[in-house]
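hiii, so i know i said id send this last week but things got crazy w the move. better late than never?? heres the sequnce for the chain we talked about at the cafe, plus the structure i predicted for it. fair warning i was half asleep when i ran it
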Amino acid sequence: MTLTTPLQESDIANLKVGDMITISGKIYCGRDAVLPKVQEAIAEGTLADLGIELEGAVIFHTAVSTAGVGPTSSNKFEIESSIHPLSVAGVRLHLGKGALSQETIKHLGDDNAVYAVIPPVTALLGDRTISKRLVSFPELGMEALYELEIEEYPAVIAAANGKSIYD
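okay and structure toks below
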């Protein structure tokens, strides 16, 4: 199944653990340094001022560097603790690697969001990355919030509807 951003709730409603997908369109990239700052912007109501639109968004847990992009562990405290608030704010798909806690998996189901693992194949993703743009928090360097335009990033649904591929 191919998903194109921005995602609608109906795009992910029928996804099941183990489904193979590809993702195209614009996605955000963020990891442990920037995701807490995005959460602060949600709480302060300043997302629009920063040029961030989360409704229907995809967040890829990665940094953006000249070496390319590849998933980081989504179960790092700063990343995993951001999944629920970002989902409530409109993120429908979180991309990364690794198992998530049962609490986070439950939140994903409650928030009508899913988590997918993406293979750590930086060379493949580089060929499928059309453009990159620094969105906000430039002081974080490669860990700032970036927007990528992508074409057919491969992923596997790892958590959906209260279930996990790791169970």
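btw The radius of gyration is 14 Å. thought thatd interest u
miss u guys!!
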